[in-house]
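Please check our next protein.
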Amino acid sequence: MTTNLQKLKIGFLIDSEICSHNVYELIKMIMKEKAKFEPIILVDNTQENKIKLKTKSLLSIEKKNIIKSILYRSINKLETIILNKTDLKPIKKILNINSLGLDKFVIDCNISNSHLYKDYDQNIPEIHKLKLDLIIRCGTGILKGQILNVAKYGVLSSHHGDNRYYRGGPSGFWEVYNNSSESGFIIQRLNEKLDAGDVLARYNLVTEKLWLLNKYKLKKECNKAWVKLLDYIYTHNDLPKKENEIIGFVKINKFPKNTIFFEYFIKKTLYQFIKFFLNKI
């Protein structure tokens, strides 16, 4: 084992200066380890192009379905009431990254003709000058090109699902719907293969009774796992050994159909909300 006497320089690749509670909290956790880590922000400031991304726009398209939109809003509203009474409650839904006071670099990306992929090849010389040890993907889209190898340890990304059984999304939903006893997440190093990165860390947790509880629990525990993984890289000056590749086909889940959403709402959301309400009386 080799001790790294230099701080681990970490680039957080985000879509815009407004980021999710989960990403904001992860960066704050990394900032507390001042002796080990040096975080900087890479802002992919190309919002007008990113709306073309199929991976970003699919959810928006699904929500335009009137029935699905009503069900989604109903599930979200009732489950949020329960979520806010737990320690999983987010402080805010979205936050401005500038409030953290970190160094920030704005970069551009190209959107592929298939509207699936993003690359940053035009900015690689500038990114290379930052001498990053690794990049953490915190945004949307499927990355390809030189960005995957511009940092010493590449681009790392988390997936809030056990990729041996659950790929696609929404994160935390299908495990609850299918009454799976466990839910999981992975942290992987991205490569050119779609949904087949090098798995560096894997964790499994007891599945919660509701989608939002399960989703936020996975994200909270995943942030803790990020800190452990980064500490390993700092201490060993290397990535942990990757898992063997998964053999066989794993179905990629899509956004639930109306019938599935309705069934989930009745059997899970409404049932648990009534129990929650009665316990408060």
Notes: The chain has one domain: 8-62+93-247. The chain has a mean pLDDT of 88.
